[in-house]
Amino acid sequence: AQSVTQLDSQVPVFEEAPVELRCNYSSSVSVYLFWYVQYPNQGLQLLLKYLSGSTLVKGINGFEAEFNKSQTSFHLRKPSVHISDTAEYFCAVSDQGAAGNKLTFGGGTRVLVKP
Amino acid sequence: ETGVTQTPRHLVMGMTNKKSLKCEQHLGHNAMYWYKQSAKKPLELMFVYSLEERVENNSVPSRFSPECPNSSHLFLHLHTLQPEDSALYLCASSQDKRGTDTQYFGPGTRLTVL
Q: What does the pLDDT average to over A25-51?
């Protein structure tokens, strides 16, 4: 069984400041890692994913994340946020060996970008 | 239309009603999913369909009944629901059911059970 912990439920940040959203996971098997974003009144949209290879993953809208296997973390960062980045962000994992594409999500982090 | 669409976007029903949620994907994908998003809990996977065959039922009560008549359509039939079933129900699709496949989500149906 897997679990995902997003350590911050809410993160207020000023426009043009950097932001880091923390994600830690627990799993007895190798996993794939994902970050999704949910804008108000919309479904989830993939920001980036780590499958293998380089541990630094670049995604859309200037976001990047780093996979750290020893710390079982996959933190998301953006060097300079915009008002339009106000949204809820979800970290998720899927079991590499599972028969189905089953995502386990964290509780989400709400980012509020202030002018 | 493109992507994943869901209807209705909002639904209010009584505990004795029967209703259905509809999801349609226009991406040519082979796998479809239902998720439940409650206010106080993480997103929960409910069902997974691959090529119209149910491959996962995540211990969901029988008052939720999924149907996948073809690879483009997915339904969630609801009956005798409880107030705690009020939530946002999200549909998603992916190319196949591999763990590497990105899931594409619809906007959801906001369900309120009175």
A: 92
